[in-house]
Amino acid sequence: MASQILILWRFTGIAAAILAWVVIVLSILQNPWFNVYRHALSDLGGPKASRPWIYNVGLMVVGVVACLYSFYLTYRAASKVHVYASALLFIAGVFLVLIGVYPSGTRPHTFVSTWFFIQMWLAVIASAVGMALDGRTVDSAILSAIAIAGPLGAASIKWPSVALLEIYGVILIDIYIALLTIHF
Fold first, then answer.
1. DSSP sequence for the chain
2. DSSP secondary structure string for all residues of 127-146
3. How many CB atoms lie under 10 A from the CB of residue 2?
4. Could you read off the pLDDT of 87-122 as tens digits, one per residue?
5. 17 near 174, Cβ under 8 Å?
6. Closest by alpha carbon to 23, among 66, 50, 59, 48?
7. Whole-Å CA distances, 120 to 1, 85, 113, 136, 138
8. Residue 7: predicted pLDDT
9. High-pLDDT (> 90) share of the chain, %
10. Tens of pLDDT, residues 49-92
């Protein structure tokens, strides 16, 4: 029984990633006006959205699941660097919850949504260092590439919309979570 719970716990990161896409797709389906080339994903939870609770509550649930995953990573961590990375992931999960609490159109929204991505980026860097110290050079190189590609791509590509930039970031986060799930 305990081993089955541990296996389920291990895959909470993958569950969070899948759930995030489900929330995004369901929200888009409820808002036919939404255009991925003109809007931000957060508009799906804003005052003009139809059923904004799908997006906002959905992100809160995803954030809680991400926090649970960070506890799993802490449980499995073999070094302080990995514990540090999981703490950063936990904080990112809290910021994801706060994106749902402070949806588009509220004053703190830009801060919490920006810091969600920054915290995830810091977690990727810490995990890359941890994997390098573990001698997992290929995994460390992949995470280092993500850590470089994230801000470089965000800054150098002329994104037609915030939504596409956010989707780019979410895809990089999904790769990060998949790699962690394989490693831990």
1. -HHHHHHHHHTHHHHHHHHHHHHHHHHHHH-TT--TTTS-GGGGGSTTSSSHHHHHHHHHHHHHHHHHHHHHHHHH--SHHHHHHHHHHHHHHHHHHHHHHS-TTSTTHHHHHHHHHHHHHHHHHHHHHHHHHTT-HHHHHHHHHHHHHHHHHHHHS--S-HHHHHHHHHHHHHHHHHHHHHH-
2. HHHHHHHTT-HHHHHHHHHH
3. 6
4. 999 999 999 999 999 999 999 999 999 999 999 999
5. yes
6. 59
7. 32, 9, 11, 20, 20
8. 94
9. 99
10. 999 999 999 999 999 999 999 999 999 999 999 999 999 999 99
Residue 1 pLDDT: 81
One-letter amino acid for residue 128 of the chain: A
Structure tokens at 154: 């965000």
What does the block give as tokens for 176? 């990060």
